[in-house]
Design a protein that fits this description.
heterodimer, A: mainly beta, eleven-stranded antiparallel beta sheet, 1 helix, 11 strands, 7% helix, 64% strand, B: alpha/beta, ten-stranded mixed beta sheet, 7 helices
């Protein structure tokens, strides 16, 4: 990732204050393998994938989640950029989009999201600290919803598999309305598919 | 092709479940009173559960409305089930009561759930038991403790006709908005409350615009507004039996709500409040 892009992404994320994005991109460190992941949490179950470029300095990521408590389908896709080569403290930023499908009491939401994540640790064990933010626009609500999240997680790698536990908390801001508190956690199992 | 459609139907059913719960009858929980659990959408994507208690026939069908209503906001970390006793007596006096859930039982984290519950009452799903049950012009908002703080915030959002704050007072951030409240209000306090102390409630009440009433009930503690005051037993023992306190709460709330919704001008029902045994009443 060029320095110019890194600055641009950082500015976008800081302007958003903190961004809600994907679970699968909530890691500061990219790995050379394609990571496939399934998770279950307090609010959602889902699957996702992160496919890095040859140098593992950038990646495409996507995830599909079903919020079983609210019966909402969530789709997210993002581009991830790692700021530096992997080392003990590795940071990455991501910029993407979210789609919400609310089948019951029909509604549709769409909007950008961004994230900034710092990974501390190595290839085997790492702790991730992140900020996420977004803008969700719904077809039956004029005011945009601005999710702001902070997250913390730990990932352990054993051979080609990863086990992660992550928690995310924050608020949704809506202009002219009181904030709504949010809290969520998930446990995920990942498989690292060797680069072809 | 047909198989694909079947798969799609199964997927759609899995994703959507059986739709939002919109009951047509309730379950009898007391003579002439039934309860039903509704679901409503809040914050675009969230499903909010709302417990509705209403005047009912013996088979759980609602009695013919429209009735006045109360949206009741739970206290911090106190489940809505502990306020059902209040909903029961209100329903026996001809009120429909909605008790919305809140994330981890903290109403401050999702303040507008009360507004969603009110919307459910006045614009109910087609064919549900709430159809035609509530008089949209006579909906009060009430709350206990932290729920009272949130009830005041909801009242300031407009759309309600009366306000009841139990063992509570306003958020100082709302002070500048209070003069424009525009509805009768009742502050209910226990004289032996160690959490929402009498002086705090009185100071909070002093900020409320007329017409308003402050009623202090003798010997009652903070959790006397719930179904048990056992939580106060060790550090702040109540000085009045719970049954007596409950009877006073009932008489005070009914007296206030009847006056507030009487249609002959906004009033707090001072005469009814002064008739409550042992109550200290202030009005303006």
């Amino acid at each position: 990732m060029s320095a110019r892009w890194a600055v641009l992404v950082s500015v976008v994320v800081s302007c958003a204050a903190a961004a809600e994005g994907q679970w699968v991109t909530a890691r500061g460190r990219l790995v050379p393998e394609t990571r496939l992941e399934v998770w279950g949490g307090a609010r959602t179950v889902g699957v996702g994938a992160v496919k890095p470029n040859a140098e593992a300095t950038a990646a495409w990521a996507a995830e599909l989640a079903y919020a079983f408590t609210d019966r909402v389908v969530e789709l997210r896709a993002a581009r991830v950029w790692q700021f530096t080569r992997s080392r003990f403290a590795t940071a990455s930023a991501n910029l993407g989009t979210s789609l919400f499908v609310v089948p019951v009491g029909f509604n549709l939401g769409l909007g950008p999201n961004a994230g900034l994540t710092l990974s501390l640790g190595g290839k085997t064990v790492s702790v991730d600290l992140g900020l996420q933010s977004g803008v969700d626009l719904f077809i039956f609500e004029a005011a945009p919803r601005l999710p702001q999240r902070a997250l913390v997680g730990v990932t352990v790698r054993v051979r080609d598999f990863t086990l992660s536990a992550m928690a995310r908390t924050g608020v949704d801001l809506v202009l002219g309305h009181p904030f709504v508190f949010r809290g969520d956690f998930m446990v995920s199992l990942g498989w690292l598919a060797p680069a072809s | 092709m047909a198989q694909n459609i079947n798969y799609f139907a199964v997927l759609a059913l899995t994703v959507t479940g059986c739709g939002l719960a919109t009951p047509r009858t309730g379950q009898i929980i007391a003579p002439g009173v039934a309860e039903a659990i509704f679901e409503a959408r809040a914050n675009q994507t969230d499903i909010l559960q709302v417990r509705v208690v209403f005047p009912a026939e013996e088979d759980g069908r609602p009695k013919a409305g429209p009735f006045p209503a109360v949206v009741y906001v739970q206290g911090g970390f106190v489940p809505t089930a502990r306020y059902v006793w209040q909903a029961e007596f209100l329903a026996q006096h001809g009120f429909v009561v909605a008790l919305p859930d809140h994330t981890i039982d903290l109403a401050f984290f999702s303040i507008e759930n009360g507004a969603v519950a009110k919307e459910l009452l006045v614009h109910p799903p087609e064919g549900s038991l709430l159809t035609g049950l509530v008089d949209s012009k006579r909906v009060a908002v009430a709350g206990h403790s932290l729920g009272g703080v949130v009830a005041i915030k909801l009242a300031l959002l407009k759309g309600f006709g009366a306000l009841i704050a139990q063992a509570s007072f306003s958020d100082t951030a709302d002070d500048s908005k209070l003069p424009a409240l525009g509805m009768p209000s009742l502050f209910l306090a226990g004289s032996s409350d160690c959490q929402a102390k009498r002086a705090q409630v009185e100071a909070g009440w002093a900020k409320m615009p007329a017409p308003t009433a402050l009623v202090v009930l003798p010997g009652m503690t903070h959790f006397g507004f719930t179904d048990t005051d056992a939580d106060d037993a060790v550090k702040c023992p109540p000085q009045a039996p719970l049954a007596e306190s409950h009877a006073r709460i009932e008489a005070t709330m009914i007296g206030f709500l009847d006056a507030a919704f009487s249609g002959s001008g906004a009033s707090v029902g001072e005469a009814s409040l002064r008739a409550v045994a042992g109550a200290e009443v202030s009005t303006r």
